[in-house]
Design the sequence.
């Protein structure tokens, strides 16, 4: 079982590790510990490199398959047992952390003030979008939402993560904000992300430690994706 550093420390950008499994079919390796986030919950996977002595191998895809975190490495694969240094593209990861937290602030504001559930989402470094169950949306309301999001970000709210037994986690009101519960029945423990004083929900991605790290954001636009499905876009300004 790989030690998933990103689950407990999103700021762990590098670590010493060892290759435990090699898949020629997948052109990928499994490590005994990793800082790489494999993607999920609308957050893309990390990119980076594996350094073996003087040899630097790019990691161009990371994903989870049947409980294994695979790191795709082009070219000849090192054998199992090889020690290495795993290093993520930190600039990209940190931009994703800030973006992900900003989207949680957006989700928290909309749930608190409008009780609208999330129907979908996506993000890239510095920008993202969430779809909500709004019957109607207009520019004045979007501007109001943008102001409220920036107020919450500037409030310098701490972000806390916790892993709870499934039974304990599901006693938390409104833990799942998506219209469809995306947590499979087989998951025995649930990771929660709390923006203290604003938002608490199940989430497996990486976040900053305080909303002040997000900085100001803007909502450049919105779209109607159906009668009760509206898309709100969000961008970091710095």
Sequence:
């Amino acid at each position: 079982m790989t030690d998933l550093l990103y689950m407990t420390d999103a700021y762990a950008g590098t670590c010493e590790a060892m290759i435990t499994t090699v898949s020629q079919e997948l052109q990928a390796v499994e490590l005994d510990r990793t800082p790489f986030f494999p993607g999920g919950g609308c957050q893309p996977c990390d990119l980076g490199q594996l350094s073996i002595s003087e040899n630097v191998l790019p990691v161009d895809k990371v994903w989870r398959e049947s409980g294994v975190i695979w790191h795709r490495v082009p070219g000849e694969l090192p054998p199992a047992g090889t020690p290495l240094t795993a290093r993520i593209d930190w600039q990209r990861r940190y931009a994703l952390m800030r973006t992900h937290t900003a989207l949680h602030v957006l989700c928290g504001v909309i749930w608190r003030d409008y009780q609208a559930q999330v129907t979908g989402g996506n993000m890239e470094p510095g920008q993202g979008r969430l779809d909500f169950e709004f019957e109607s949306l207009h520019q004045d309301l979007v501007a109001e939402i943008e102001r409220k999001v920036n107020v919450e970000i500037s409030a310098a709210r701490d972000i806390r993560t916790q892993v709870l037994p499934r039974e304990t986690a599901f006693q938390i009101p409104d833990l799942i904000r998506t219209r469809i519960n995306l947590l499979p029945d087989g998951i025995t423990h649930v990771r929660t992300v709390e923006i203290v004083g604003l938002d608490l929900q199940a989430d497996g991605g990486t976040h900053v430690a305080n909303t002040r790290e997000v900085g100001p954001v803007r909502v450049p636009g919105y779209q109607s994706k159906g009668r009760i499905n509206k898309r709100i876009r969000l961008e970091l300004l710095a």
In short: The chain is about 20% helix and 35% strand. The chain has a mean pLDDT of 93. The chain has two domains: 3-88, 93-236.
